[in-house]
Amino acid sequence: MTAPIKTLAEIEKMRIAGRLAADVLEMIEPHVQAGITTDELNTICHNYIVDVQQAIPAPLNYHGFPKSICTSVNQVICHGIPNDKALKDGDIINIDITVIKDGYHGDTSKMFVVGKPSIMAERLIRVTQEAMYLGIKKVKDGARLGDIGFVIQQHAEKHSYSIVREYCGHGIGAVFHEEPQVLHYGKPGTGEVLKSGMCLTIEPMVNAGGRHSKLLKDGWTVVTKDRSLSAQFEHTILVTDTGCEILTLRSDDTIDRIVIAE
Questions:
Q1: Which residues are annotated as a binding site?
Q2: Residue 2: how many other CB atoms lie within 10 Å
Q3: Which regions of the chain does DSSP assign to beta strands (E)?
Q4: Which terminus of the chain, N or C, has less C-beta within 10 A?
Q5: Helix, strand, or coil here: 77?
Q6: C-alpha distances out from residue 262 to 154, 158, 210, 252, Å
Q7: pTM score, two decimals?
């Protein structure tokens, strides 16, 4: 199926939802400290989305998901369920936010570090964010999805990391997950052709060890099979005639200044 093209009115609603999702990540950053539980982070985010933004946390009750955000710590790849376990110094955590405003979704995530990270964790986080940025820079009218997946995979594997293949980015709009599927690996010149007005997420999941994952008994939490660290970044993107617009851009994003280390 082809990804739907958004109208100008829909694009404006996507911009608003994207800005709100980005704002939640900026709001929660000072709270990500040793001793706080991921359930407490969930409560803070939920209250901010509902009471301050007058919006809806999309994950809550989505196919039965029990919380308002996803919190994926250390070896958790994605869809971690907030719980009563406290964060400790050296932990890395991905917080994934999806906000619904006026019927449209803004979806974004970033990595946070608790205290001082290990050199390995710091490097994994940096390379994962760079991979996402490289993928975003390939987005434009006429590009193919394989072009995006290829540069992300190439960058991760150049640093001896692996790309998770069971989970991917997706089209987004009035529906949380719509066409197309945005793989974070692939071959240039293959896959669906992007058209101006499409909205999609780019959200590479990069493992320090092997690429294989394991779904836990809760039916949601996905971990690395070899228990290695995993990192992820995500933005919601609007395809434009000349390139793209990052609808979930934050003040700490460095895509225009980034220097990719060899």
A1: 79, 96, 107, 170, 177, 203, 234
A2: 11
A3: 56-57, 70-73, 76-78, 92-101, 104-113, 162-163, 169-171, 178-182, 199-202, 205-207, 213-215, 222-224, 230-232, 235-239, 244-246
A4: C
A5: strand
A6: 12, 9, 21, 22
A7: 0.95
The edge-to-edge listing of strands for the beta sheet with 213-215 is 76-78, 222-224, 213-215
Task: Report the alpha-carbon distance of residue 36 to residue 147 in Å, rounded.
Answer: 40
In what side-by-side order are the strands of the sheet with 199-202? Answer: 178-182, 169-171, 199-202, 235-239, 244-246
Known binding-site residues for substrate equal 79, 177
Instruction: Give residue-wise pLDDT tens across range 172-181.
Output: 999 999 999 9
Residue stretches of the annotated binding site for a divalent metal cation: 96, 107, 170, 203, 234
Look-up: residue for tokens 């301050």? 52
pLDDT digits (tens, 9 = 90+) for 42-65: 999 999 999 999 999 999 999 999
What tokens does 102 get? 């006026």
SS3 category, 19? helix
User: Is residue 259 packed enough to be buried (19+ CB in 10 Å), middle (13-18) or exposed (0-12)?
Assistant: exposed
Closest among 133, 57, 61, 130 to 95, alpha carbons compared: 57
